[in-house]
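Give me the fold.
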Amino acid sequence: MAGKRLAFLGLGVMGYPMAGHLARAGHDVTVYNRTREKAARWVRQHGGRHADTPAAAADGAEIVLMCVGNDDDVRSVAAGADGALGTMHAGATLVDHTTASAHVAREVHAAASARGVGFLDAPVSGGQAGAENGKLTIMVGGEPDVYARAESVLAHYARAVTLMGGPGAGQLTKMVNQICIAGLVQALSEGIAFAEKAGLDVERVLDVISKGAAQSWQMENRGKTMHADQFEFGFAVDWMRKDLAICLDEARTNGASLPVTALVDQFYARLQARGGGRWDTSSLIRAVREPG
């Protein structure tokens, strides 16, 4: 595939390695990051260029990809005073990898369409390790023709890229993902805490049940570290609470009942109150071990 002119906006723990995969694949990549030195470091490592604003980075790019923090960041980076859409040409494509609301996805889609720019909401799952290893799962919302233009580029850092429906469908699918993870981590926390109280060999328990119907990614990758009370890595509690707030807000709109998700969200709030906002989400077991 011939190299494309790309821009990547947002070089956090996910965006930094994702943009790196694009450069290694032979694309001409311009990056933007709010902290200029991080963008300069990326260029020293991967080549390409960095720009001082999203608009400057996006100017002339065929596909602009972004991975920022929340709805307000998406609005600002995409459509703010120095936003990418201000310089994107008709026929170009804007891809948002941020986990955000379906509402903001549709809002930015409308703003992009008014300028003749395609838009995809494309949140990812797989965490920092998935981004670094190029093994993310990407769930996409948007029009099929726009998706077709971007799919091969997204594949550079994904093991699966799937069009889920129209604008907002990617974000809604990511909400399902986070709802399921919240329940799984809570159940795993309770199971491990139960095994500890029962005096069982917890690692042996996890080895056995991971070969049966209880198996999950969380069990395989977090079970033993949860038992060891190790949480200084991975997807932070603060980020999960942001995501669960999006899920609960959408549920109030569409009428879905999320009683377990709402409960787990409050357990995470307790961890934040204890200073655990940057702990990995598997630290939920601390709320089970010490419920007070």
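The mean pLDDT is 97.
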